[in-house]
Amino acid sequence: MTATDAHPRTPAQRPGPAGVFDVHTHFFPRISRAESRVLAGAGEPWLREAGDGTGTMMSGTDAYRPVSAELWEAGSRLAAMDRSGVAVQAVSSTPLLFGYAADPARAVDWCELVNQRILDFCGQAPDRLLPLCQVPLQDAAAAAAAVTRAKAAGHRGVHIGNHVGQRYLDDADLLAFLAHCADQDMPVLVHPWDMLGADRTARGYMLPWLVGMAAETQLSLLSLILSGGFERLPRSLRMCFCHGGGSFAYLLGRADNAWHRRDLVRADSPHPPSFYTDRFCVDSAVFDPRALRLLLDVMGTERVMLGSDFPFPLGEQEPGATIRACTGLTDADRAALLGGNARRFFGPTVPGAGAR
């Protein structure tokens, strides 16, 4: 019996093809302490289950975060999706699993392990769970090869962190990797991680998440833009930046002003930052209808997709609530934000792709 068989749904509960599509959800598989040792001291993430539907994400011997079964158990996840009316989730690994600090050869093996667990998980409900692979991004050539293998195995996109050490996405090797993703027709979901300013945000209050995440994404986007990175990437590349693109939309006017007034800013970018907003998408995880209204004004309704950060407590607990509460939207706008845009982003053969 599969997890989906173990969790029957009545017709009233079963979302139809025009339902909500959440592009930003996470997964952490049942990985043992012994399996994690392939990373040889580079974080070594594993899952310690308590046996009562809760557990702890571990990093070596350190407890990283308490979690619940929705993170690793398909039946629990599907039940939560039914309760919130979510039809489809794009499923990506928890960033703790990236393994970017490991030796590249070990990271290749690690990503193969994690990616197979993602496929096994999503295979329990292929009409509702869309698998995204992770890659050993510290070695761009190995990462490109991993994308090719993952696509052949059934993954529908790529989930990456926004940087590897001091190398951001405008790095020449990482640009080559992104171009390969375009060649493979594999959309890329970019997630902030390993946040800057750790020495100044270590005082607590989850400041790395509250401040660092927004800054990381802003830094990634402006690095791509001002370096001329988008000029060197094919327009066929589909990228989505999580957490609403961080502080990018709010500070775009500042960036444009700097581009117009200082040659240092525009040295490698032939156009101001606002020119490039049609080169990427963002998710809707901004938690305030006023912030979402600004994001839509900057990005355009067609480039924003529902993202909840499920199942973590800092995510949107009622997926789509901010979109539904945002004023000035037509029914067609809300349908696009809640699902239509995601179906176009991931391609014509995703679950419910014919729905509009």
From TrEMBL:
Transferase is among the record's keywords: no
Name of the protein in its database record: 2-amino-3-carboxymuconate-6-semialdehyde decarboxylase
Native source species: Streptomyces lunalinharesii
Similarity section: Belongs to the metallo-dependent hydrolases superfamily. ACMSD family.
Pathway, per record: Secondary metabolite metabolism; quinolate metabolism
All residue ranges annotated as the Amidohydrolase-related domain in the record: 22-347
Subunit-level organization: Monomer.
Membrane-spanning segments: none
Alphabetized InterPro entries for the sequence: ACMSD, Amidohydro-rel, Metal_Hydrolase
PANTHER family membership: 2-AMINO-3-CARBOXYLMUCONATE-6-SEMIALDEHYDE DECARBOXYLASE (PTHR21240), 2-AMINO-3-CARBOXYMUCONATE-6-SEMIALDEHYDE DECARBOXYLASE (PTHR21240:SF27)
First-tier enzyme category under EC: lyase
Entry keywords, A to Z: Decarboxylase, Lyase, Metal-binding, Zinc
EC numbers on record: 4.1.1.45
